[in-house]
Amino acid sequence: MKREIKTTNDGSKTLFINDLNENYHSHHGALQEAEHVFIKNGLNLINDYEINILELGFGTGLNVLVTINEYLKTDKNHVINYFSLEKYPINESEVKDLAYFELFDNPEFKNIYQKIHLADWEKSVEIISGFNLKKIECDFFDLKNIDLPKINLVYFDCFGARVQPDLWEKPLFELVSDKMALNGLLTTYSSKGSVRRILQELNFQVKKKQGPPGKREMINAIKL
């Protein structure tokens, strides 16, 4: 699928898929969406010493970068193991043109950004001390065959239901739920009523939260 780079309203870039008429991130702001959905309403709500994060999917790597940025703000007395699934990895030229490291003041972020994208697939790589990344190239439905530790936090960041409706139906959420620890948190930009009902059927406590700019609501769901 042909992709092109576009600049969103907060100055950060995203990829746009012409054939699907779909952005990888909100056109209202890629960076602020990632920080609102996955940091403010995700990582910052988890207090475990060892945090196992599952991301669907890796995409441009922006969610990994904002997670590391938040991790560096802490006293770093905990460990993050980050598992990210992706079926269609972006290419070297796209990585270079997105240049997400420029969004952060930390001069180390250029090296961190490069290390994220150069990390071998299917291998756990320590990006910085205490932060381990494993990128897995696969279809999301292959999740059932992937050996993972119990997941404390899920970044459910699939393409929207308009273009990939099967990713927002019960079978995939069941696979995700099976990988999660009790009291684990799933956070997503979606607020679809059908998604809320599916998660409730799977014994999640579902909360509607204020959405990122341009979106009225989003979902947090805690596995009971």
Could you please describe the fold and organization of this structure?
The chain has 224 residues and is of the alpha/beta class. The protein has a single domain, classed as Vaccinia Virus protein VP39 (Rossmann fold, 3-Layer(aba) Sandwich). Helices cover 25% and strands 30% of the residues. It contains 6 helices and 11 strands. The chain has helices at 30-40, 62-71, 92-98, 109-118, 170-178, 193-201, and strands at residues 3-7, 13-17, 22-23, 50-56, 79-86, 124-128, 131-137, 151-156, 180-188, 204-210, 217-223. Strands 6-7-5-4-8-9-11-10 form an 8-stranded mixed beta sheet, sandwiched between helices. Strands 1-2-3 form a 3-stranded antiparallel beta sheet, with helices on one face. Helix 1 (30-40) packs across helix 2. The N and C termini lie far apart (39 Å). The model has no long low-confidence stretch (mean pLDDT 96).
